[in-house]
Specification:
Elements: H1 2-16, H2 20-31, H3 45-71, H4 79-88, H5 93-105, H6 109-127, H7 133-143, H8 183-194, E1 202-207, H9 214-225, E2 233-237, H10 250-260, H11 272-283, E3 289-295, E4 312-317, E5 327-331, H12 337-348, H13 350-355, H14 357-366, H15 371-383, H16 389-396, H17 402-405, E6 407-408, E7 411-412, H18 413-422, H19 426-435, E8 443-444, H20 445-452, H21 456-468, E9 473-476, E10 479-481, H22 484-492, H23 499-524, H24 548-571, H25 575-592, H26 595-612, H27 615-632, H28 635-652, H29 655-671, H30 675-692, H31 695-712, H32 715-732, H33 735-751, H34 755-767, H35 775-791, H36 801-811, H37 815-831, H38 835-852, H39 855-869, H40 873-889
Parallel strand pairs: 1-4, 1-5, 2-3, 3-4
Antiparallel strand pairs: 6-7, 8-10, 9-10
Helix pairs in contact: 1-2, 2-3, 3-5, 4-5, 5-6, 5-7, 6-7, 8-9, 10-11, 12-14, 12-15, 14-16, 20-21, 20-23, 23-24, 23-25, 24-25, 25-26, 25-27, 26-27, 27-28, 27-29, 28-29, 29-30, 29-31, 30-31, 31-32, 31-33, 32-33, 33-34, 33-35, 34-35, 35-36, 35-37, 36-37, 37-38, 37-39, 38-39, 39-40
C-alpha cells in the first residue's frame, strides 16, 4: 500500500504539470501492484470496512488512468478493460461513462447509447433513482453527436528513422585504470550480455548499495563489449541518486539519447510518445549498447528501451527494479578481503600496503570492504604521506566519527547513503532509524516487529523494502543485518528529537527478548524455579518455541543479539531487564560451555541487581555468578559470592537459595581440597533440599557429594550418593544432566574395582549424548569410557573416545573439566606405554589445576608426571609433592585413581 500510495501521488503531480503520458505510465505501475481482491476470505465488519476503503482507492486510480488514456487519444483499446470493470461494479457511473465515451469515439454510437439504457434500468431497479447529471449530459451529447465529445487529434506519425552518423557515437565514461577485483561479477555480466534474446533487447541490470562500484563495473563491461555493438555505445546518467538533482525524466532522457545519435533537434518530437516512437524506429536493425546509469525506478526506463532485438541495455540502480520485465539481475555486494587489499595497493601503492599488512586488513574491515570507502581512505593517505595506515585505522575505529573520516572532496560515504535514505517514504525512513537501535547481530522479523511496534508480516514488508534498496542485507531467509557503515549512518540519525520514540522502541525490544527467553527456558529447563521479574510480559509476536529443538535453535541463533541486548539494557539504565535477561541467558551459556561469557554476564547482573535494590534478584544473580566461578576455577571469588548469596537469601527467608548457596560453598571447598569443610556445607544443603521437596536440587547436590567422596577416597559413599542422584534424575525425566551423574557413578565403581558396572553406567551415559550437551561432561564420559575399556582388556575403539575427549576439551570446556579429562587420559596413555603423551597431558593438567587451586587434580597431575617419568631425576620430586597434597587432603593411598 505504501508503494501504491507513493506512485499515485507521483502520477497526480505529473498530470498536474501536464505530463499526461508519464502520469499514465506511473498509474499503470501502481495498479500492477494489485494481486486479486483485497483481504479476500477475511471476515468481520472492521476488516470489511478496511477492504472497502482500500478497494475504493484502487478503483479511483483506475478511473484516473482511463481519463488520462482517453485524453491521450486512446478509445477502442480501452473497451475490453472498461467492460470488465463495469461488470464488476455495474452501479459505478464514472466507469460506465468512460465506457460510453470509448465506444462512441470508436464509432460504436449505438452500443454507447445501449450502455446508458442498461445502467438507467439497473439504477431504477436497484436504488429507485435515475442516472446522475454528468452521465445524463454525456448521453445527450452522444445522441446529438456533440463535437465536444470527439477525442484529441491523432498524434502526428513518427518521423522516419534517421540514418546514424558514419562515425558510431560513443559516450561511455573512461574505464578506470585502477579497476580491481570483481572477476566473478564481471564474468557473469559478460555471460548474460552475450546470451541472445528471443525478442526485444537484451537487458542486464546491476543492483547494489551506494558506493559498491556498480557504475565502474558496468563501464568496464561496456568497454569490453563495445566491439560487438558497432553502431554505437551510449551512456546516460539518469541521476536517480545524485546529490542536489532530480531524476531525469523519460522525455529529457530520450532527447539526450536521440541527440547523441546525431538527430537534429527540430526532428525530435515534443511529447514523450513521439520521442519514444522515433527512438525505437531509429534503432530497428541496429546494434547499439546503451548504459542507463543510476536509475531510480522502472517507470523511467521503460520508454528508453529499444523495441527490437540486437541492442544491449545495461542498467545500474541501488534498488532492484522488479518491474523491469525481461531483465537479468546481478546483485553487487561488497568486495572480498583479498580484493580490498588489491584495490588499496592499486590506489595507494603496493609498497605502502605491503609495509603494513595487518593495518591494511584492519583498514579494509573498517571501511566495510566498500569500494567507495576504500578509495576515499586511500585518497586521504595519498594526500597525507606522513600518515600510516595504522594511524588512519585508529581514526576510523571511533564509530561515532567513522563516516566523517570517510569523506574527501565531493565524495562521501555518508552523502551516498543519505541519498538512498531520502528516497524512502516517511514510514520506511522512521523504520530504518529505529532498526538501528537493535544492539547487534542479525535481526529477525520478530525482533524487528518488537522494535517497530508492528506485527511480523508488517515488519518483514519494511525489511524487504530496505533490502530492495540495499540499506540492509540478508544473510539467510528471515534474517537481516546492516552493513557496518550503513549501521553507523543509521545511528547518526538518532538524536534528541527522536529520543522519546527511540526509548519506547528499545523497551519494546527488551520486553520481547525477556518474554521469549522466559518461554524458551520454560521449554528447555522445565524444572527451573520461576522467579518474579517485576516486568509485564511483552505483547510482541513470539517465534514458535513450543518444543526443545525449536527453543534450542532459537537460543543458538539469537545468542549474539541477546548478549548485546543485555549491554543495551545496561547502557540505557534498564537494570531490571539486565538482571532478568542475564538470568535466562546464563542457563544457555552454561549448557554450551561458554564459561567466560557466563562469568562476564554474571558480574554485570550482580552489579545491576545491587543498583535495583531488589534482594530477590540479587540473590538469583549471586547464585548464577557462583556457578560461573566454579566452572571458571575462580574458587576464592566463588566462596565470597556464595556467602553473600546465602546471607541475602537468609534475609529474604528464601530457604531454596540458602540450600543452593550451601551446596555451592561445599563445591568450592571441595575443589580447594577442604573436604571436611565441604562435607558440612553439602550435608546442610541436602537436608534443606529434602525438607523443601526440591528433588532437582537434591539430585544436583548429591552429584557434587558423590564427586567429593570419590576424590576423598571414600568410594562406597560416593556410589551411594551417585545412585540416589541417578534415581532422582530418572524420576524427574532430567536427561540433560544424567550423563554427568552416570559418569560420577562410574568413577565410584572404578574406585571399587567394579569395572563391568562402570562400563554399564558409561554406556547409558553415552546413549544420552546430544548436540546441546555440555562438551566438558561429554569429554569426561568419553575419557573414562576409554579408561574402562582398557581395564577390561578391550581393543581401542574407532574412533578413539580418548582422542575425541581431548579434542572436545581443547575447544570448549572449563579448566576444571579439562584438567580432569587430561589427567584421566594421561593415566590411560601411560598404561598403554605412551609415556611421552602421558607426560605432556599431565604437565598441562598441572598448569591448569595450579592456576585455579584445583587441589585434587593438581595432586593427580603430579602423580601422573612422576609415573610417566619413571626413574628420571624429576620423578621423585613430583611424587613427593603429590604425596604431600594427598596427605593434606586426607586421601588414603589405597583409594586413589591409578
Amino acid at each position: 500500500m505504501a508503494e501504491f500510495s507513493l506512485l499515485a501521488r507521483e502520477a497526480k503531480t505529473a498530470a498536474a504539470e501536464g505530463r499526461s503520458a508519464e502520469a499514465a505510465e506511473i498509474l499503470r505501475g501502481a495498479l500492477a501492484l494489485w494481486r486479486g481482491p483485497v483481504l479476500s476470505g477475511s471476515g468481520g465488519p472492521v476488516i470489511e470496512a478496511a477492504a472497502t476503503t482500500i478497494e475504493e482507492r484502487r478503483l479511483t486510480a483506475a478511473e484516473q488512468l482511463f481519463d488520462l488514456r482517453l485524453a491521450l487519444g486512446e478509445a477502442a483499446e480501452l473497451v475490453g478493460d472498461l467492460r470488465e470493470l463495469v461488470n464488476q461494479h455495474p452501479l459505478r457511473e464514472t466507469l460506465r461513462g468512460q465506457l460510453m465515451l470509448a465506444l462512441y469515439r470508436s464509432g460504436r454510437q449505438a452500443e454507447a447509447l445501449e450502455e446508458y439504457g442498461r445502467v438507467r434500468l439497473l439504477l431504477v431497479e436497484e436504488l429507485g433513482i435515475d442516472p446522475g447529471p454528468q452521465l445524463t449530459k454525456l448521453y445527450e451529447g452522444i445522441l446529438r453527436e456533440s463535437p465536444e465529445l470527439a477525442g484529441p487529434p491523432p498524434p502526428a506519425p513518427p518521423a522516419p528513422p534517421v540514418e546514424l552518423p558514419a562515425e558510431p557515437p560513443c559516450t561511455l565514461p573512461n574505464d578506470l585504470a585502477d579497476f580491481t577485483g570483481r572477476d566473478r561479477e564481471l564474468s557473469e555480466l559478460l555471460r548474460c550480455a552475450e546470451e541472445s534474446g528471443e525478442q526485444g533487447p537484451r537487458i542486464v541490470a546491476l543492483d547494489g548499495m551506494g558506493g559498491c562500484g556498480k557504475t565502474s563495473l558496468a563501464v568496464r563491461a561496456a568497454h569490453r563489449l563495445s566491439a560487438a555493438y558497432p553502431d554505437g555505445q551510449l551512456h546516460l546518467d539518469l541521476r536517480g541518486y545524485t546529490p542536489g538533482d532530480q531524476p531525469v525524466t523519460a522525455g529529457t532522457a530520450l532527447d539526450s539519447l536521440l541527440r547523441a545519435l546525431g538527430i537534429p533537434g527540430d526532428r525530435i518530437p515534443d511529447d514523450v510518445l513521439g520521442r519514444t516512437a522515433l527512438w525505437r524506429a531509429t534503432l530497428v536493425g541496429k546494434r547499439l549498447l546503451i548504459l542507463l546509469d543510476n536509475a531510480a525506478d522502472a517507470a523511467g526506463i521503460g520508454p528508453l528501451l529499444p523495441a527490437s532485438s540486437g541492442c544491449l541495455v545495461l542498467v545500474t540502480s541501488r534498488a532492484r527494479l522488479v518491474d523491469l520485465d525481461g531483465a537479468q539481475w546481478i546483485s553487487i555486494g561488497v568486495m572480498s578481503a583479498e580484493e580490498s587489499t588489491t584495490l588499496m595497493a592499486e590506489t595507494l601503492g603496493a609498497r605502502r600496503v605491503a609495509a603494513e599488512p595487518e593495518a591494511a586488513a584492519e583498514l579494509a574491515q573498517l571501511c566495510g570492504h566498500l569500494p567507495l570507502a576504500l578509495r576515499i581512505a586511500t585518497a586521504r593517505l595519498r594526500n597525507r604521506p606522513r600518515w600510516t595506515l595504522q594511524y588512519l585505522a585508529e581514526r576510523l575505529s571511533d564509530e561515532t566519527r567513522r563516516l566523517d573520516e570517510l569523506s574527501a572532496g565531493a565524495r562521501s560515504v555518508s552523502a551516498t547513503l543519505r541519498l538512498s535514505y531520502q528516497a524512502l517514504d516517511e514510514e520506511c525512513r522512521t523504520a530504518f532509524r529505529i532498526l538501528a537501535l537493535h544492539p547487534g547481530g542479525d535481526i529477525n522479523v520478530h525482533a524487528a516487529g518488537a522494535l517497530l511496534g508492528s506485527g511480523t508480516w508488517e515488519a518483514e514488508d519494511i525489511l524487504e523494502l530496505l533490502l530492495d534498496v540495499h540499506l540492509v542485507q540478508q544473510p539467510e531467509i528471515g534474517l537481516y543485518t546492516f552493513h557496518d557503515l550503513v549501521r553507523s549512518f543509521a545511528q547518526s540519525l538518532l538524536g534528541e528529537s527522536t529520543e522519546g520514540e527511540d526509548a519506547i522502541a528499545v523497551e519494546r525490544l527488551l520486553g520481547y527478548y525477556l518474554t521469549a527467553t522466559e518461554k524458551a527456558c520454560e521449554v528447555l529447563y522445565p524444572g527451573r524455579q520461576k522467579r518474579h521479574t517485576g516486568i509485564p510480559p511483552a505483547t510482541a509476536e513470539l517465534p514458535d518455541l513450543g518444543d526443545p529443538d525449536l527453543a534450542q535453535a532459537w537460543f543458538t541463533r539469537e545468542q549474539t543479539a541477546l548478549i548485546s541486548a543485555v549491554t543495551l539494557a545496561e547502557r540505557r539504565g534498564h537494570d531490571r531487564y539486565v538482571v532478568c535477561l542475564a538470568r535466562n541467558l546464563v542457563f544457555q551459556l552454561n549448557a554450551r560451555g561458554q564459561m567466560e561469557e557466563f562469568g562476564d554476564l554474571g558480574r554485570v547482573a550482580v552489579a545491576a541487581a545491587r543498583r535495583v535494590g531488589d534482594l530477590g534478584l540479587l540473590g538469583v544473580s549471586l547464585s548464577n555468578l557462583g556457578v560461573a566461578c566454579w566452572k571458571l576455577g575462580r574458587f576464592t571469588e566463588g566462596i565470597e559470592v556464595a556467602k553473600e548469596g546465602r546471607d541475602v537469601a537468609a534475609r529474604l527467608g528464601d530457604r531454596h537459595t540458602v540450600a543452593h548457596s550451601e551446596s555451592t560453598l561445599g563445591q568450592f571447598n571441595s575443589l580447594l581440597g577442604r573436604f571436611s569443610e565441604a562435607l558440612v556445607h553439602l550435608e546442610k544443603a541436602t537436608t534443606l533440599e529434602r525438607e523443601l521437596g526440591v528433588a532437582r536440587s537434591e539430585a544436583d547436590n548429591l552429584t557434587i557429594l558423590s564427586t567429593l567422596y570419590e576424590q576423598w577416597g571414600r568410594p562406597e559413599e560416593a556410589r551411594t550418593a551417585a545412585e540416589r542422584a541417578v534415581e532422582l534424575r530418572a524420576r524427574l525425566g532430567q536427561h540433560e544432566h544424567q550423563t554427568a551423574t552416570l559418569t560420577d557413578l562410574a568413577f565410584a565403581h572404578v574406585s571399587l574395582g567394579a569395572y563391568e558396572e562402570a562400563d554399564r553406567c558409561l554406556e547409558r551415559a553415552r546413549e544420552l549424548f546430544d548436540a546441546g550437551g555440555d562438551p566438558g561432561d561429554v569429554a569426561l564420559t568419553l575419557a573414562l569410557s576409554a579408561d574402562v575399556d582398557d581395564r577390561l582388556g578391550r581393543p581401542v575403539r574407532t574412533p578413539d573416545p580418548a582422542a575425541r575427549a581431548l579434542e572436545l576439551v581443547r575447544t570448549n570446556a572449563s579448566p576444571l573439566r579439562r584438567a580432569k579429562v587430561e589427567n584421566t587420559v594421561g593415566r590411560l596413555r601411560c598404561r598403554q606405554g605412551d609415556r611421552e603423551t602421558a607426560l605432556a597431558l599431565h604437565t598441562h593438567a598441572y598448569r591448569l589445576a595450579t592456576a585455579i587451586n584445583y587441589r585434587i587434580e593438581e595432586a593427580y597431575a603430579l602423580a601422573g608426571m612422576a609415573q610417566a617419568l619413571g626413574d628420571a631425576e624429576d620423578a621423585a620430586a613430583h611424587r613427593a609433592a603429590a604425596e604431600a597434597l594427598f596427605a593434606e587432603m586426607g586421601v588414603p593411598a589405597d583409594h586413589r585413581r591409578d
